[in-house]
Amino acid sequence: MIRVMDTSAAVELASRDAVGQAALAAAGEVTAVELLEAAIIRLEKSRELNAVITDLFDRGREQAAALDASGALRTGDAGPLCGVPFLLKDLGASLAGAPEAMGSRALRGHVAAESAWIVERYLDAGLVVFGKTNTPEWGNHCTTEPSLFGRTANPWSPTVSPGGSSGGSAAAVAAGIVPAASGGDGTGSIRVPASCCGLVGLKPRRARTSFAPGGGHGLEGLVNEHALTRTVRDSAALLDAVTGTGIGDPYSAPAPPARFLTAISETPPPQRITITTESPFAGPATQPAVVAAVEYAGVVLEGLGHVVEPGFPAVDPDAVTSAVAVLHAVSNVALFELACSVLGREPREDEFEPSTWEMVREGFVTTGAEYAGAIATVHAQTRRFAGQMSGSDVLLVPTLLTGPPPYGLLDRPRGSVREFFDVEFATTGWTSLANVTGWAAVSLPLGTTAEGSPIGVQLMAPDETILLQLAAQLEQTLPWADRLPPGWVGGA
């Protein structure tokens, strides 16, 4: 029987994924309170990462004690995640009564009035929430270095970014503080940190989960919510927990044919996979180590019985970048209005980061025609992309075109929002196309740079089931669970 009595026992538990920790609790090997206390020990050992910016230890202890007292862990009906400690990204995962700064100085005193639907689903699944993770201001950046809380360190190397905007969650999972943490993805904000930190990062298909009660969708459908995990089965179990719609949602995804956790145990039929290592956007060529990782994944998938052929589903890169820039600028105006309501006045320019202020200013002068045109462009490019993929089931591409980027690259103003995204997309490449089209996409840690940092390889498809099945095949063939960063809580 595992008893969490000291640091070594707490570190030992870090090697178990979420499903594994819940299984220990269900078998009576450990209690929910002990799982939580072990996670708190690991968090305290990893404070230098700056991954967690809000401690919610008391509410976590109260929830864990209630689970233990109820006997829910031992009934057999609690589900595969009950009792597992969990962290919420401080954006898009509101928890009633908890601070919610969203990485912004203008919202540093904001407290959420209600819980997001997806958080309620996490709690219903028995996940024990005990903290919130660092994020860039309003999720605007694919790096996590907000001026409010400071940069989050990448457990693999202090010289490179953990990615963003779910960088705090990614660092916490990569370091072993928790087996999983929540994330959100508008142009790659789950998959980019997954690539930077050597994790599984799934962006679900559009409308797989709900934005209730606060909204119908985010960024006109570009944003999706899910999580960062170390294993495919944890990603599947978490998606099972949050799949569905809230009352009054404007649209919903078709129900999956089976539970995702069940589906990953099944061998998928041979898939027609299109592979490319080129970027859909202008910029430097994909780095050789990334090319090698994608090509090797293609070879492995061929060996598993799938048909892998080169191709390039082109979109109009100029149109896509301009449309995304317009949608982000207008979205920042909406957040500016939230800051006004929280502060009771208009925020000052010095209460925003320069790149955010640039987006807000452009958002205020964006016309209705420009906004409507951006939405129409997104839909038109989606049809173009889907038409070119009609002969394939899956797209195999890089997650990032490089290894983890340095700090200071992806959060600076560039003179215009369009130029800001020109720089971002020259690094991220294909990630935004999954958001624009609404396709599901997953980043898997299948490569390594010469310096030893992770490289993510990305699979895209209209639905999550086949992605998770392919990911499970790759995980079994090319296991990554034993690849631990130097910043692992117990030492690599």
From TrEMBL:
Its EC number is 3.5.1.4. This is amidase. It holds the Pfam family Amidase. Transmembrane segments: none annotated. It catalyses: a monocarboxylic acid amide + H2O = a monocarboxylate + NH4(+). Signal peptide: none annotated. Residues 34-462 form the Amidase domain.
